[in-house]
Amino acid sequence: IAEQSGLIVPIGRWVLQEACRQASTWHRHGHRIDMSVNVSARQLDDDELIEDVRHVLQESGLDPAALTLEVTETTLMRDADATAKRLRLLKELGVRIAIDDFGTGYSSLAYLRQFPADALKIDRSFIGGIATSKASAALIHTLVQLGKALSIETLAEGIEDQAQLETLQREHCDQGQGFLFSRPLDVNGVEDFLNAARSTTQPLAIS
């Protein structure tokens, strides 16, 4: 309903403001982590998104390189040429761009090269069977190699057990997220998690 009515635009603006404010606070406390924020199709259609991001970065003082904007693969293909242009303007601000739910949409390799993406987030639907299914493992291998060929980081979503993590590590997937690392947390929970994580060398990704 928010997407259809256009309310997703002010809601998304508020989410962006709060996320950048909180990330900036964590940075001042010594937690140098990145913040990822989902951008909806309606937001991406609006030219004001560029100015919103610029204003929020200035207001919060957050390093632009610490902010990743996540856009689903399906959203990218709604108007690929216009979207690519808008994403390039966002990249000029210094932020990172991630393609979310990668593998579930309809993008072609020709268009994928046009999008200034820094990361491909491999959809969780491909992760569940990688430790036991040769077909799933082969698909993950292909997606990770695609990222490497395009010089784009790969991040696996929905990692829930050690076997999945070890398979992804063997494939040299760059990052991962999922319940194996943590369940969703509030602000205080995230701070406790980060403090505990300082004592481990296990690679983590929070978004």
What would you say this structure looks like, in words?
The protein is α/β, with parallel strands linked by helices. 49% of the residues lie in helices and 13% in strands. The chain has helices spanning 2-5, 8-28, 41-44, 48-60, 73-76, 80-92, 109-114, 134-149, 162-170, 187-197, and strands at residues 35-38, 67-72, 96-102, 119-122, 153-156, 175-176. The chain has a 6-stranded parallel β-sheet with strand order 1-2-3-4-5-6. Helix 9 links the parallel strand 5 and strand 6. Helix 2 (8-28) runs parallel beside helix 4 (48-60). The two termini are 24 Å apart.
Question: Short summary of the structure?
Answer:
The protein is α/β, with parallel strands linked by helices and 207 residues long.
Derived structural class? alpha/beta
How much of the residues is beta strand, in percent? 5-15%
For this structure, the quaternary state is: single chain
Biggest sheet, spatial arrangement of strands: 1-2-3-4-5-6
Distance between the termini: 24 Å
From the spread of the alpha carbons, the general shape counts as globular
* DSSP summary, beta strand count: 6
Following the backbone from N to C, one meets helices and strands in this order, namely HHEHHEHHEHEHEHEH
Overall mean pLDDT: 89
Identify the notable features of this structure and list them briefly.
alpha/beta, single chain, 207 residues, disordered C terminus, 6 strands, globular, 49% helix, 10 helices, six-stranded parallel β-sheet, 13% strand
Topology:
Layout: H1 2-5, H2 8-28, E1 35-38, H3 41-44, H4 48-60, E2 67-72, H5 73-76, H6 80-92, E3 96-102, H7 109-114, E4 119-122, H8 134-149, E5 153-156, H9 162-170, E6 175-176, H10 187-197
Parallel strand pairs: 1-2, 2-3, 3-4, 4-5, 5-6
